User: Fold this.
Amino acid sequence: MIRFLSGKEIDIKKWDNAISGSWHETAYGYCWYLDIVTPGWCGLVLDDYKAVMPLVTSKKAGLSYVLNVPFMQYTTIYGLKPDNVLFREFMKAIPAKFRYLDFKIYLPFEPVLKNAEIYSHTNVILDLSQSKAGLFSCFNTNTKRNIKKAEKQNVRVETSDNPEPIIDTYTRFKQRKYNSRFDDNIAVNIRNVIQSGIRTGSGELLYAYDSGNNCLGGTYFQKSASRIIYLFSAAEDEAKSTGAMAYIVKKQIDNYAGTKMILDFEGSDIPGIARFYKGFGSTDEKYFHIKINRLPKLIKWIKR
Assistant:
């Protein structure tokens, strides 16, 4: 039987055990992480936590929704590896009160679901099991050129426990490029994720500095048992001419070369960013975007 439970009703130990022993383990599924990025989250639980699925829920104008949130690329069915039958059972277990579903999910197959729109997206990952030299040999020419540029200009990479420079840098980037603000709630969430991750040893924040000790940019990597997620980054304009961001990634790849970890870039629908990720010899994997509109006819067209 699949039960729908609020976060407060969930047995944290059993839930997290299902995540850690899952066929697909990521930081996105753990209770501590969900509590930060989507307070009030809910979940579907099969039997005695044999399989679980986190849900991001919201309510507006008296209507309930299942949606996405920043810093959680997708949900999935953790624990028991699902097939299409189990996936459909989990979808049926989402209470009927949720009239609009618009979320992303990772599955080991192409999902089939009636009365739903399903789109595919591309994630980008790098298997770190090779040696440093083996991994470096797979970098493309442009990535190698940027790394050489950084080395020539004496760029250095250091770890830090201070999230403020990366948040400030991203805030300026948003204003400069899009003439928009960095949403205060989102900034609070990423600050809390970074601080919690560093405190527990599951996160690493790396900054790049030039020879004058100016911060060029930074990247926060969220680790779990099997994946290192390239969760958040920001760069100054000068970072492009120094190869700083490629140098940060190269340093992190070196740190975990020869391990069983996966570096998860989270993919991107922006061509330039996708090219940056693919430049490290990364490969593609699919995840899916599901939309189900059960809103009343009068307002259904608004969410088309």
